[in-house]
């Protein structure tokens, strides 16, 4: 059976009617690094967002919340290099960014999603945007998605962009996105920053519902270091230019849309986890056989959040007791004496625990399996049919080095 979707190039501009750009406008000292992204739809879009649960929030979040309160938006602007958080003039700057988008693109300031990422508490002015917005707007193009993906990066080592096509009512639709995030990732809502666009027609209410569910199953199952940032945001724009009948209620089309959204977000999660600050390995935990989905999620995320387990994976040490330990303090209601654990990678599979107890295994094989750059920790709870996946990375010496001199 073929998949109901196909991966395609294009990222944030894969869908019809979207243009993007990314430029260096002077926020960063390094002129070789792009530091501002702009994404614009040809028409007004249904819009939905999720935000950080940190009580300390960047000013752009408050401005975005106000702008999308009516369920619609048409543009996204995001700078990197300065988080615009804990600044006395933060709201003034975020609103000013929106007004400059209106001035140079014609998109109303109240239809702009605004975001920032970078150092917290650093002074900021509107000056770089005032001098750079004309160039940013002039650079908008249907092939500009990669430039936008580069412009939102901070400590990321690679640009993160994904897109898929899928069918709704006989119409071919596209959905794509870009994200950034290597550190301060333990979201409790979404990720560091993620922007998504689609040409599918869907009502704001159904778009919000789909995003909320997918966020719970993807970005909320991602952790790099246990820190929830102040600027986390995931936003999606749907302009309806694919020509499908608008999705206004649950049904087959809604399920197909949500499945496509999940695929894009899950792939972005994998990219962010693998590109975690200092990381050398992508760690996935798949918890199966749970009595319910919440139990599966608790178990999977607790395992990938364990610093001891992350350190063991860095050293290719099959210290499986750390898996059981993380499950034990997860808060999940599980029968420990029924748990099986395997380590899985391209190099093979090694079973290390059956029915809650250790079993003989080849340390040599385990070392080989855990030396790969992508490792799955397979946890079978043997209590039901529910399952969940969480994504994380190993903990290396470089994580401390990166964050020891992040500002300097």
Give a brief outline of the structure:
31% of the residues lie in helices and 28% in strands. The strands form two sheets. Strands 1, 2, 3, 4, 5, 6, 7, 8 and 9 form a nine-stranded mixed sheet that branches. A six-stranded mixed sheet has the order 13-12-11-14-10-15. With 408 residues, it is an alpha+beta fold.
Commentary on this structure:
There is one protein chain. The protein has helices at residues 59-67, 90-105, 127-138, 145-151, 204-217, 252-274, 293-305, 307-314, 321-328, 363-370, 397-404, and strands at 5-7, 18-23, 36-51, 72-82, 112-119, 160-168, 171-180, 193-198, 233-238, 282-290, 340-345, 348-354, 357-358, 374-380, 386-393. It has 408 residues and is of the alpha+beta class. The chain has two domains: 5-274, L-amino peptidase D-ALA esterase/amidase, CATH 3.60.70; 282-404, Roll (Ubiquitin-like (UB roll)). Strands 1, 2, 3, 4, 5, 6, 7, 8 and 9 form a nine-stranded mixed sheet that branches. A six-stranded mixed sheet has the order 13-12-11-14-10-15. A hairpin with a 2-residue loop joins strand 12 and strand 13. Helix 1 crosses helix 2 (90-105), helix 2 packs parallel to helix 3 (127-138) and helix 5 packs across helix 6. It is globular. The model has no long low-confidence stretch (mean pLDDT 93).
